[in-house]
């Protein structure tokens, strides 16, 4: 069955490999460097990775932030970041650059996901049922057509709004994206390469499992399995590959599980992690339910998070509605359906739960580009040109106002967002921003003058617009954004106070009501060791305590602490980030007279 798809060879120019790789690198590299971990998700992910950096590899089965158990996520992304941290530490890299080096793991995961999505689309587009009609012999070859569609699928992924920030922060969802993309590729590859598909499916499951547990990949795999066994041409092929993959998965998991159980606290972490995985499902948590308000949140988040691939994938399904029985449509449809099912049975208000939708929707969106009418493609082109050009003008206008004070009203708004920040014009960043703007102008000129009507053309403009805005933000605005989101200044002030009040030598700090995001980055920036209140280590050794509280409730935690333990502790410092007028930190030191009356086991009289 050949589906109608009007396309000629002149519409099918391949995207240059250099241009495709250049777009990928321009997308992923800006924003990974020249900044500190940002609150909240980036700081939390860095705190977990920083723990693996500090401890030996044989302790990597127990995930922590400081000495506090952390199970809200997986291990794959943190393992890779911790490994990169250990590797670059041997090269003598400055300590302040450690977080930059650890974020390089995102480059690996995104390239892996892009590779899997490209190959998935390429294999599907080569199939007979998706080939364009060729009544006059003017259509491109199967290979050329498949490559052009595969190029477009990677651009569809990069053009997605929801991926932009996630791709540049230390979060486990990026590793999960790679794992799910490999699972989808393995399902497609099972149609013609049975042996390799089994191995690939097993590796995809392992990556997705260690990235964020089983809440996403298990429904993903089950829907693919149901789709395969319900179709005669797929029933035995994919089923056999999945069984082989599960055997491979077991071969990899059993030794790891035995090693995990043999380590200190390994069993405790495993049980806590599996409990967290189960609690992610709404049906297993009686305090949560799928109501109308939740569905509205899911609809609103989907519209912006999955733009523009959601409407494009919808067009593909409508255009190829007569081919739903074909494997080339059933497999990505099943994966997309699994993503929506996972979204509804977990938590639609959590953006991380939309990640499983990106691989199948990117594939479906690219498959339908060849069937779009010229007027619709031109509409997408001009929408991207006008929208991203306007945003770029606003970014430049905001930077001009914040740097030079004109227009004054806009400058005042920036001052409210980051009070106390002193603008500084950095030559290199300014040159990069100007070059990016020039490249965007050249891209618009190419759009208006080129006679090439390549099917990936609208995605080049949309993807280029996303890259332009992100590049401008990460060059012109990144010093101000970093100033507003970093805990570096607070950590340095904390370290200075502890050194001044406690004298020379190593020091540790107890934490009281400190969040995971604050804990991980404050440890990094202050180079101090933090211990929780329950820790036996800090009970007799830590003479300092840091407390976090909120001004919106008139410091209730601070008030209660001083009422109950004021005889033991005296406040020696308080501080906050300049951009946050609500979040405050208070540092306390044990009173000397209290220590004299309550000797510790280390200095008690015999």
UniProtKB/TrEMBL annotation:
The chain crosses the membrane at residues 76-98, 107-125, 203-230, 242-261, 295-317, 329-346, 352-370, 382-406, 426-446, 458-478. The keyword Protein biosynthesis does not apply. The keyword Amino-acid biosynthesis does not apply. Keywords: Membrane, Transmembrane, Transmembrane helix. This is Glycosyltransferase RgtA/B/C/D-like domain-containing protein. It comes from Limnobacter humi.
């Amino acid at each position: 069955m050949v589906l109608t798809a009007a396309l000629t060879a002149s519409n099918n120019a391949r995207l240059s490999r250099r241009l495709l790789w250049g777009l990928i690198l321009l997308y992923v590299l800006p924003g990974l460097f020249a900044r500190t971990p940002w609150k909240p998700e980036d700081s939390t992910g860095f705190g977990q990775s920083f723990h693996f950096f500090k401890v030996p590899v044989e302790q990597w089965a127990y995930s922590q932030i400081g000495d506090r158990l952390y199970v809200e996520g997986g291990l794959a992304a943190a393992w890779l970041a911790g490994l990169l941290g250990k590797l670059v530490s041997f090269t003598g890299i400055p300590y302040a650059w450690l977080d930059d080096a650890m974020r390089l793991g995102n480059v690996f995961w995104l390239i892996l996901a892009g590779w899997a999505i490209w190959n998935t689309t390429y294999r599907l587009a080569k199939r007979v049922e998706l080939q364009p009609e060729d009544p006059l012999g003017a259509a491109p070859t199967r290979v050329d057509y498949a490559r052009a569609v595969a190029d477009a699928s990677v651009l569809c992924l990069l053009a997605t709004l929801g991926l932009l920030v996630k791709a540049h922060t230390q979060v486990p969802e990026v590793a999960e994206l790679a794992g799910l993309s490999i699972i989808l590729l393995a399902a497609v590859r099972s149609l013609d390469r049975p042996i390799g598909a089994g191995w690939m499916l097993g590796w995809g499951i392992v990556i997705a499992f260690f990235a964020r547990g089983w809440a996403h990949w298990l429904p993903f795999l089950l829907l693919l399995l149901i789709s395969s066994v319900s179709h005669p041409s797929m029933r035995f092929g994919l089923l056999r590959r999945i069984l082989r993959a599960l055997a491979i998965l077991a071969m990899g998991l059993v030794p790891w599980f035995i090693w995990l159980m043999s380590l200190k606290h390994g069993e405790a972490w495993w049980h806590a992690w599996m409990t967290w995985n189960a609690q992610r499902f709404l049906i297993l948590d009686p305090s949560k339910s799928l109501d109308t308000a939740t569905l509205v949140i899911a609809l609103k988040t989907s519209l912006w998070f999955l733009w523009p691939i959601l409407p494009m994938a919808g067009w593909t399904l409508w255009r190829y509605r007569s081919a739903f029985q074909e494997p080339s449509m059933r497999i990505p449809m099943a994966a997309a359906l699994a993503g929506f099912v996972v979204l509804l049975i977990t938590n639609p208000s959590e953006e991380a739960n939309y990640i499983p939708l990106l691989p199948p929707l990117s594939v479906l969106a690219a498959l339908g580009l060849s069937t779009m009418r010229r007027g619709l493609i031109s509409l997408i082109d001009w929408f991207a040109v006008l929208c991203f050009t306007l945003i770029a003008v606003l970014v430049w206008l905001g930077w001009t106002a914040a740097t030079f004070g004109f227009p004054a009203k806009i400058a005042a708004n920036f001052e409210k967002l980051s009070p106390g920040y002193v603008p500084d014009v950095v030559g290199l960043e300014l040159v990069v921003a100007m070059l990016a703007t020039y490249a965007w102008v050249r891209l618009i000129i190419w759009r208006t003058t080129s006679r090439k009507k390549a099917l990936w053309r609208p995605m080049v403009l949309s993807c280029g617009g996303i890259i332009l805005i992100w590049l401008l933000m990460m060059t012109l605005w990144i010093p101000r954004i970093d100033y507003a989101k970093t805990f570096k200044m607070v950590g340095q002030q904390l370290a200075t106070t502890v050194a001044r009040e406690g004298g020379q030598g190593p020091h540790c700090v107890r934490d009281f009501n400190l969040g995971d995001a604050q804990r991980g980055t404050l440890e990094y920036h202050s180079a101090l060791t933090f211990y929780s209140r329950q820790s036996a280590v800090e009970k007799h050794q830590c003479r300092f305590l840091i407390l976090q509280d909120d001004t919106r409730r008139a410091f209730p935690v601070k008030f209660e602490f001083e009422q109950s333990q004021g005889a033991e502790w005296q406040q020696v410092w308080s501080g906050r980030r300049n951009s946050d007028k609500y979040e405050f930190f208070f540092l306390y030191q044990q009173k000397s007279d209290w220590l004299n009356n309550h000797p510790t086991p280390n200095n008690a009289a015999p």
